[in-house]
Amino acid sequence: MKKTPISASKQYIHSLLKPYKPSTTTHFRRFSVAPDSPQPPSQELTQPIITQITTTDNWTTNTTLNQQILSLTPQSLIKIAREFQTSTKALNFFNFIRENENPSLSLHPPPLDSIFQTVIQLAIREGDYASIVGLFNLSKEVKVSLTNHSAIRLISYFSCLNKVQDSMLVYDNLDPDVKNTNVRNIVLDLLLKSERFDDARQLLDEMLEPDAKFPPNEITLNIVFPVLLRRDWGNRTDDFIGLVPKFGVHGVFPNKLLLTKLITKLCRSCRNEKAWDLLHELMKFGKVEAAPCNALLSGLARERDYKKINVLLKEMKENEIKPDIVTYGMVVNHLCKSRRVDEALDMFKQMKEGSDGISVKPDVILYNTLIDGLCKVGRQEEGAALMKQMRLEDNCIPNVVTYNCLIDGFCKSGEIERSQELFDEMNNEGVDPNVITINTLVDGMCKHGRIGNAMEFFRKMQEEKGIKGNAVTYSTLISAFCSVNNIEKAMALFDEMESVGSPDALAYYSLISGLTLAGRPDDASFIASKMKKAGFQMDLVSYNTLIGGFCRKKKLDKAVEILKDMEENGVKADGVTYNTLISYFSQHGDFESAHKFLKQMIIDGNVPTVVTYGTLIHAYCLAGNLDEALDIFDKMLVSSKVPPNTVIYNVLIESLCKRGKIDHALSLMDGMVQKGVRSNTTTYNAMLKGLSSKNRLQEALRLMDQMTNQACNPDYVTLEILNDWLDAVGEIEKLRMFVQGYQVSSAFNGSDLLLVQHLMVQTSYWFNT
Asked: Counting Cβ atoms within 10 Å, is residue 574 exposed (0-12), middle (13-18) or buried (19+)?
């Protein structure tokens, strides 16, 4: 540690350091008597003597008083020193005793260090920094050792004044024996608060040595641990965590609360391994309870490290660390979240029965966890049975959370009536619903086509229960009404929401999406502007929705305006954005702009998808530019990692057939087989129509057999194509075999079957069968 001289008023220090000059008058010097010389009788210390000494300064001129002082015992001298009211008088008394001392001849050396301690205490009480600095310098000059108490008082005083260097100078000048654990604790606390961590670590390492003369105590640990918990030590975490078992060597261990906090911090910092090692180090000392184990179990569960969870639970049993309800609750919770509900139920059973020798009574939180877990995997009836069990077996009263879990489970399974029965039951049981209950039922009704019932229920809750609903309630209803194109009702709810409270981002998103899908992108854009004024940021999905809406309305200027706003707000375009724009320009024949956005899409790090390529190919085919479409297709095969799908093949095959390029179309169809892309009815219809235009019957018959082998069902278009063609060439029997092979009675719905029958009547085939 760097030593810095203490600065103080030189003039004031000089006055303090003036040596005491006794009178030349001959008097008896108790402290200078030889050992074999007769000692004067010890003066009995009385209050009048104390008063006389502390109220006068003429100890040298008053021989009687002089002799009285010098005949006192060390304990009496200390007692007198403590009676002085000012540091100046106490210092004069100290100087008098020091000047009359002869340690080589005295049987009882005067307690100069204790008297000087009193001087320091008085000076600190007076609060004169210069005086205190002078006293410290005086102690060094006259070689009076500071006591532990003096050192602590001085170090603490300088620390309060934020004069760390002064405090450290005091510490550095102490005798080694004075630097006991208490003094070191004061210095350690000072260094840590001053963020001199290297110095603090050096001091702490000295205390943590196995054979340290002044080892750490509980106070040391309570000084160090809060700092460990408060800071992120980065790559030095291992060093500081390693301090904990070193404390244990000296029998000092963190209490349950501190250790739990430390384990929790490590786990939340994704340092489960460090937490694991630390806990196991302390297990060796037998100083671990359930709470820190629970903290580690929670961290392991977040990472789904069930292997270590099982190991830790086993080790808890081996080390006689009794798991509590929190332990079981935590493990059950994470098992349920991982959808391992049966394992959670087994653990619950073991906990109740005490199969491990420890029986723990479940509480309502644990029951709720299991009920929610059952409902999440569609076993809500078992959850309802468990609610009955909690009442009958464990006298646990279900609360609003219990009912909310069950209501949510039945709503998700579409059993709305059952959810309403549970809602009525909770009211009868005196369990008040909350806004989560209302939102759950409203959402369930809306998702299962009961929007009117949801609205009616919400109004009833507003009137009867005073539950006004929140942003989630309104957002759910707004989204539901938008989905059925009831935009006016959605807008009315949005206005109502604004009147009772501020809409949240979800409400704005729902309305923007609903208005856009309803073909009202201008209204959606107006809501987006209100959203920004309310302090919410548009997200990528909302921007894409608006851009798509304006493109469908052929309002390119508006779409570009939204795109610019999107860029200005730092929202990066994604594949959906670019595909929307590429599709728009392609459909309108502006292939230059389409390719410009395709290029920008790649520059921005977005990989073109099958939708991107399919949009361009389809647009080129519609524009009659088949060669360009095939060129993109070839590039897609060679350079792209995105394989073409059935839709792209169908577009190209149909276009080729329309232009009479049957062989090219057939080769594409063969390529589908090689690429593992399955042909569908649309593929075969395009190819059969093309073959019929060229009257290439054999290839058509081969494709019909291929359809049969692939179980690809024909539709009415297939039958129209084949009926007209095969009847004309006298091969209607082939059609009958083709239809029978596909079991027409089961392969078509009623309308398709009627159409087939109608076609057969036209060819006289139906009456001959």
From this structure: middle
**Can you tell me the distance from the alpha carbon of 616 to that of 623, in angstroms, rounded to the nearest whole number?**
10
Which tokens belong to 599? 């290029």
DSSP class of residue 177 equals G
Q: How far apart are CA 721 and CA 153, in angstroms?
A: 106
Would you say 331 and 309 are in contact if contact means Cβ atoms under 8 Å apart?
yes
User: Would you call 737 exposed, middle or buried from its count of C-beta atoms within 10 A (0-12, 13-18, 19+)?
Assistant: exposed
pLDDT tens profile 589-635:
899 999 999 999 988 888 888 999 999 999 999 999 999 999 999 98
- Residue of 142 and 416 predicted with greater confidence: 416
Rounded to 10°, the helix 451-464/471-483 angle is 150
Residues 364, 402: contact at Cβ < 8 Å?
Answer: yes
Which residues are within 8 A (CB) of 484 and not within 5 positions of it... i.e. 6 or more apart?
451
Pairwise CA distance, residues 550 & 590, whole Å: 17
Amino acid occupying residue 207: M
Q: Are 672 and 683 in contact (CB under 8 A)?
A: yes
Does residue 363 sit in helix, strand or coil? coil
Long-range interactions of 353-356: CB distance < 8 A, separation 24+? 356/317
Task: List, for residues 78-97, the tens digit of each pLDDT value.
Answer: 888 888 888 888 888 888 88
- What sign results for the dihedral spanned by CA atoms 159, 161, 164, 166? negative
Query: With contact defined as beta carbons under 8 Å apart, do 530 and 508 qualify?
Result: yes
DSSP state of 414: T
- Whole-angstrom distance, CA of residue 560 vs CA of residue 279: 59
Alpha carbon distance 696, 690 (integer Å): 9
Per-residue model confidence (pLDDT) at position 236? 66
The pLDDT score that the predictor gives to residue 459 is 94
Q: How far apart are CA 593 and CA 606, in angstroms?
A: 17
pTM over 0.90? The answer is: no
552, 555, 557, 560 alpha-carbon torsion, rounded to 10°:
-10
Query: 30: which residues sit within 8 A by CB, 6+ positions away?
Result: 39, 40, 67, 70, 71, 100, 106
Assess whether pLDDT exceeds 70 at residue 36: no
Close Cβ partners of 38 (under 8 Å, ≥ 6 residues apart): none
The whole-angstrom separation of Cα 320 and Cα 673 is: 66
